[in-house]
Every structure is written in structure tokens, then in C-alpha cells.
Design a protein that fits this description.
- This protein is an alpha/beta fold.
- The protein folds into two domains: about 10-175, Rossmann fold, CATH 3.40.50; about 180-385, Dehydroquinate synthase-like, alpha domain, CATH 1.20.1090.
- The chain is about 45% helix and about 10% strand.
- The protein is built from 15 helices and eight strands.
- The chain has helices at about 20-25, 40-45, 45-55, 70-85, 95-105, 115-120, 185-200, 210-230, 235-250, 265-275, 280-295, 300-310, 315-335, 350-360, 375-380; strands at about 10-15, 30-35, 60, 90-95, 130-135, 145-150, 155-160, 170-175.
- It has a six-stranded parallel beta sheet, with helices on both faces.
- Helix 10 packs across helix 14 (about 350-360).
- The longest helix is centred in the middle third of the chain and has 23 residues, at about 210-230.
- It starts with 10 loop residues before the first strand and ends with a helix.
- The structure holds 5,6-dihydroxy-NADP and zinc ion.
């Protein structure tokens, strides 16, 4: 097991009716910047619950944060936060609203060019406004981690940053808020969290039993409750388990003591920035192909996954690995995210631009062995035509 440092200060309020705890978390008379997306929170009653709980506070609203939040939008919110002398940001929505709000929180306290936050991976961040979240889409884990992904639409750059200063102070997770999610977003969330687990699991064995067995249990939850959430959309228990699984998938717990990969995400972000695919769609394309490309290096963990999670016991080791990859592809496809570029009207001619963008972004040595170059990324995508 590798060395690690574990820090997670985010307080979680989980379950039915927990939006009311906003009253305890945000002091009366606070100046609150309420950030949200394209309006789902107004259609499903979350907005009213939030405003109800914020009575006594001065609330300034900033809506319109888009999926894959745009720097160009967020920078307007930064100006509002400064002008209105905001005390606390409350992000209400999915990962995009929360990620965008992390950027706003940091940029509102930064004197230089705010894009520095992205190009330095958050190293230039020294302070941030406090951030609270009401999560409405289980997927990213952003509600309980220090990461944020922001897109600069003008240049098609989708970059991420991480900083302890933008960790949410608290997050409220009421599974009932997810009932209004369209099937596509449920599916995206299940696939995204599945891949988050795998980015921290599918590397090489280091005998980190806690992280490995946590990861395996969360994968089993997703195999069960991902399809169940689509089949029985009004089942509270399914929604609740899915929501907490997605949070646990990327709140720092699984990375303790193990190497991590993250090449699938890096390649996937370029596909989203260039061609507009949903984040989870890109992951469904890249991950199975990457496993085939790196089969020898990932052999130990691929077999562990095949045996412990999928109960695959027959065939040679190579056959077991191929079965495990095919079952994973079948899961993504069942969740509405097919695994080939051609499923999204992309082809071989679209691959060189991904290679170029990875090079431009300095993504030259990806994966747990830092041996996946932009050239390898292109070869991986060719396995997913
Ligand atoms: O904008 P609104 O109207 O709220 O609609 C949203 C949006 O259209 C809708 N939605 C959210 N909750 C809903 C709802 N619709 C009905 N009922 C509800 N309860 O869903 C759509 C997608 O929302 P979005 O926030 O974009 O989805 P998600 O949570 O999957 O976030 C994706 C973003 O997170 C980044 C991705 O790259 C992408 O930009 N990631 C962030 C990570 C992190 N911070 O750790 C890690 C991830 O790997 C990921 O990269
Ligand atoms: Zn992701």
C-alpha cells in the first residue's frame, strides 16, 4: 500500500428534507450568491425550498451556468460576487454548477488574470469564498472534492484545477431532488461515477485492501442501481444508493494508498471540448479501448475485477480479461452510452485534433505509469472506431 494524506472537511447532510438544514449552515443576514444552471431547479421545486431556507439572508442570484461550465459565463459571476460583496456562494445543481461555483469562489479572491487558476491547476489560489452545495445530479463527486472543470469556449480548452480552498464547506444531498432527472443524465451520472472508481482502481495491485474492496462494492452498486434507476425511476432507495455511491466514488476515499490513472478523463475532456459529446459519453468510448491498449500493464487488476466484481472464472486469463471488458462495454451501452466513436458520428479523421489538443495542454505523459503520450491516445481512439 502506498503512502497517502487524507483530508476531507466537507460536511454532508444526506436524505429527505435536508435542504432545510441550510438554515443552520448559512447565518442569517449573510450575503449569498445563489448559483444555478438552466432552470431545472425552478421546475422541480428545489429553488423554492432553497429560498425558503434562506429567509433572512440577502440573496443575489446568478443563473445560466451551462453544462461544461464556460469561463465566459463564470467571469460575469465573479464580477457580481465582487460588486455585491458576497459572503458565501450556494451552488444548486449538478457538477457543472458546483464546478463553476468553485471557480467563481476562487476567482472572486484572486487579483490576477482569473484564467491563471486553470493554467496553474489551482496553484495560484490562496483564498476563496466559502462554498455550500445543494446537489441535484449524482455523478461528479464535486460536492465533496476539491476539483473543478471549466471550459473556455472561445479556444475549446477544457481544463481542470484542484484546490483545498474550494472544497465545499457543506453539501446537501436529498435523493428526491434527482427524480426529475432525464434518463440521459441518470445514465451519464452512473457511467461517470463508474469511471471515477476505475480511474483509481484499474491500475496495478499494491495490496491496498480498503481502497480495493471499497471500489469493488461501489462498482457492484452501480451495476445494480444504475439500470434500476432507469427501470424504476421513482424508487427512493435506488436513488439514495446511487447518489451516495457517486459521491463516494470521487471524494478522495478510493485514492488512499493506490496509484491512479485518469488518462480516460484527460482524453475524454478533449473530445467534449472539440466535438461537444457529454462527459460520460467520452468516458464510455475511451476507457474500454484504453484497457485493451494497456492490457498487459493492467493485467493484475483486470483479472481482480473479472473475478471479484463480475464473477468471471472460465477461460484463459486473456479470455477472462476480454470478457470483463465486454461486460463493461455492455453496461455502458445498457446505460445509453455506447462505446464507439462511430456511435457519435465521429471517425478516424477526428482523432488527430485530439492528439494536438493533448499536446497543446501538456498532457504528454498520462496514466499510472506516465507512459501514455498524445500519440498513444490517438492509437487508443483508433481501437474505438
Ligand atoms: O442546468 P440545469 O437546468 O440545472 O440542467 C442540468 C443540465 O442540463 C440537468 N439537471 C441537473 N440536475 C437536474 C437536472 N435536470 C433535471 N432534474 C435535476 N435534478 O442536467 C444537465 C447536466 O448537468 P451537469 O451539471 O452538466 O452534469 P454533471 O453533474 O454530470 O456535471 C458534468 C460536469 O462535471 C465535470 C464534467 O467535465 C462536466 O463539465 N466533472 C467534474 C468533476 C469534479 N469536479 O470532480 C469530475 C468529473 O470527472 C467531471 O469531469
Ligand atoms: Zn468524470
Amino acid at each position: 500500500m502506498d503512502n497517502f494524506t487524507y483530508f476531507n472537511p466537507t460536511k454532508i447532510h444526506f436524505g429527505k428534507g435536508q435542504i432545510a438544514t441550510l438554515k443552520e449552515e448559512i447565518a442569517p443576514n449573510s450575503r449569498v450568491l445563489l448559483t444555478y444552471g438552466g432552470g431545472s431547479i425552478k421546475a422541480n421545486g428545489v429553488y423554492e425550498q432553497v429560498l425558503d431556507a434562506l429567509q433572512g439572508c440577502s440573496v443575489v442570484e446568478f443563473g445560466g451556468i451551462e453544462p461544461n461550465p464556460h469561463y465566459e459565463t463564470l467571469i460575469k459571476a465573479v464580477a457580481v460576487a465582487k460588486q455585491e460583496q458576497i459572503d458565501v456562494i450556494l451552488a444548486v445543481g449538478g457538477g457543472s454548477v458546483i464546478d463553476g461555483s468553485k471557480f467563481i469562489a476562487a476567482a472572486a479572491c484572486y487579483d490576477g488574470d482569473a484564467w491563471d487558476i486553470m493554467t496553474t491547476d489551482g496553484d495560484c489560489v490562496r483564498r476563496a469564498l466559502p462554498l455550500g452545495c445543494v446537489l441535484t445530479l449524482p455523478a461528479t463527486g464535486s460536492e465533496m472534492n476539491k476539483n473543478s472543470v471549466v471550459t473556455r469556449a472561445e479556444t475549446q480548452d477544457k481544463l481542470s484545477f484542484g484546490s483545498d480552498f474550494v472544497r465545499p464547506v457543506f453539501s446537501i444531498l436529498d435523493p428526491q431532488t434527482t427524480y426529475t432527472l432525464p434518463p440521459r443524465q441518470i445514465a451519464n451520472g452512473a457511467v461517470d461515477s463508474f469511471v471515477h472508481i476505475m480511474e483509481q482502481y484499474m491500475t496495478y495491485p499494491v495490496n491496498a485492501k480498503v481502497s480495493d474492496r471499497f471500489a469493488e462494492s461501489l462498482l457492484l452498486n452501480l451495476f445494480e442501481d444504475g439500470p434500476a434507476a432507469l427501470a424504476t425511476p421513482d424508487d427512493y432507495e435506488v436513488r439514495a444508493n446511487l447518489m451516495w455511491t457517486a459521491t463516494m466514488a470521487l471524494n478522495g476515499t478510493l485514492k488512499n494508498g493506490v496509484p491512479s490513472d485518469w488518462a480516460t478523463h484527460a482524453i475524454g475532456h478533449e473530445l467534449t471540448a472539440l466535438y461537444g459529446l457529454d462527459h460520460a459519453q467520452t468516458l464510455a468510448i475511451v476507457m474500454p479501448a484504453l484497457w485493451r491498449y494497456k492490457k498487459e500493464q493492467k493485467k493484475g487488476k483486470l483479472l481482480q475485477y473479472a473475478h471479484r466484481v463480475l464473477n468471471i472464472t472460465s477461460g484463459t486469463e486473456d479470455e477472462q480479461i476480454e470478457q470483463a471488458i465486454q461486460k463493461t462495454e455492455a453496461f455502458f451501452t445498457q446505460m445509453g452510452n455506447p462505446t464507439r466513436l462511430s456511435d457519435y458520428n465521429l471517425s478516424e479523421k477526428d482523432i488527430p485534433a485530439v492528439q494536438e489538443k493533448l499536446t497543446e495542454h501538456g498532457m504528454l505523459a498520462l496514466g499510472e505509469h506516465q507512459d501514455i503520450t498524445p500519440h498513444d491516445a490517438a492509437a487508443i481512439l483508433k481501437l474505438a472506431l
